[in-house]
Amino acid sequence: MEQLKDFAKEAVPEGQEPFRDRLVGDIYADANAICEGAVTVRDRSKLSETYRLDRIVTSPIWGYPIMFVMLGIVFWITIAGANVPSALIADGFGWLEGYITSGFQALHAPDWLHGILVLGFYRGTSWVVSVMLPPMAIFFPVFALLENFGYLPRVAFNMDRLFKKSGGHGKQALTMSMGFGCNAAAIMSTRIIESPRERILAILTNNFVPCNGRWPTLILLASLFMAAGASGGGASLLTAAVVMGMVLLGIAVTLGVSWTLSRTALKGIPTHYTLELPPYRRPQILKTILLSSRDKSWAVLKRAVIVAAPAGVLTWILGNVMVGGTSVLDHMAAFFDPFAHLIGLDGYILMAFILGLPANEIVLPILLMGYLSSSAMVDVDGLSGIKEIFVAHGWTWLTALNMMLFSLLHYPCGTTLFNIYKETKSAKWTTLSALIPTGIAVVVTFLVAQAARLFGWV
Predict the structure, then answer these.
(1) Beta bridge partners of 326
(2) What is the DSSP letter of 225?
(3) Treating both helix axes as pointing N-terminal to C-terminal, what angle do 363-371 and 382-392 enclose, rounded to 10 degrees?
(4) Between helices 233-261 and 397-409, what is the axis angle to 10°?
(5) Once rounded to an integer, what is the mean pLDDT over residues 242-251?
(6) Distance CA 247, CA 219 (A)
(7) Who's near 299: CB < 8 A, 6+ residues apart?
(8) Which of 14, 243, 312, 320 makes a 20 to 30 Å CA pair with 147?
(9) Do residues 296 and 181 make contact, with C-beta atoms less than 8 angstroms apart?
């Protein structure tokens, strides 16, 4: 093996591209020559248009800026388009809740039954639906349109350069794209990576891409605190920019962790990634939107509701069972508070993340219930009411920023961890997939909090 490595070094003179890259390039050059002699193309204008466009979108100079701008536009469309539908759905659920409560009163149902079924089960589920459904109904179809157009393979081609330098595999860019919808699905999609070492790398680092369960937290806090000074369209643009910054940070952490693991626990030489770029196609807009909404949005929403419903009941119970005159929820928050303060959070936030292990979608409802004294899952009037609750409990921009960072970087949800165990058949890798991101989340939030306090920014 050492002799082969020495031969590989000798076969690559200083300043030249790697031997394997030249070999693959020569193979494709020969294949292209054979194709030119055997295939007749009637309309070369379409091919030339594809080549001209690819010179731009896959360029080492312009490829990355275009990629980030496209992703930013997708985020802006999602954020700007989801606000009104979310408010309308929330109002609809609130209107329906009034009639449900009247029904309970007419039947003389006990308060505890109304609390569990309405204030816990119904409100927790309605929060998840109203907050998650509109963004997913916009994000997934827009992302699918980019895929149908043929742009996502170009993203994988661009990201291959970065993943190769970090010791990973270019196909991880495709699995990472799936992580924007659901990290659990992204773990299953790592099957497309043939190398076991690089597949483990992808599994351990896919969590750093924000999934659908974390979008509500990132978008809400960015709009309430980071874009608080803007108004109208400027607020949506600023919110999209902040969320985009979080995504770029997640990608940077993904590459950094891959680089570290590939030189320590998962040493090895990256395998070559050969990707044939498909031609650009005119997407079937209506069909794509309908299929994406049915297959992706509905599937993810159904899973979230199934998890959120029992979690809402459990949270209501913990908030109403008293020990020494204080609810169990308050006792939990008080226990976590000293450590949480070190990393710029509070005990209720950490408690919400822990109880939200089954699904990231329920972190915010649990947090709001912990803050509210009404013993209800969600009992606020619009975004301004949510911000007033946060500020009343000592929140600053640092609290919002560190909660966004912790949400981005912390351990995967329960479904994702279960999929990791199914795919790896290893308790070790499953445990590491939870400990590595959690450790990074704690370190990052600790450093940010201490720096802000040291320089007097809070």
Answers:
(1) 323
(2) I
(3) 60
(4) 50
(5) 91
(6) 12
(7) none
(8) 243
(9) yes
123 and 377 in contact (C-beta within 8 Å)?
yes
DSSP 383-405: HHHHHHHHHHTT--HHHHHHHHH
Report the C-alpha gap between 204 and 179 in whole angstroms: 12
Q: Token digits for 328?
A: 């169990």
Pairing state of beta strands 322-323 and 326-327? antiparallel
User: What is the rounded CA–CA span in Å between residue 259 and residue 267?
Assistant: 10
Q: What string of DSSP letters covers 235-289?
A: HHHHHHHHHHHHHHHHHHHHHHHHHHHTTTTT--PPPP----PPPP----HHHHH
**H/E run at residue 264:** none
The secondary element (H helix, E strand) that includes residue 327 is strand 326-327
Cα 283 from chain centre? 25
pLDDT digits (tens, 9 = 90+) for 418-439: 889 999 989 999 999 999 999 9
Contact 135, 213 (CB under 8 A): no
pTM: 0.81
The rounded distance, in Å, linking the Cα atoms of 125 and 365 is: 9
Task: Identify the residue whose tokens are 């979690």.
Answer: 311
- pLDDT, residue 374, reads 45
Contact 92, 129 (CB under 8 A): no
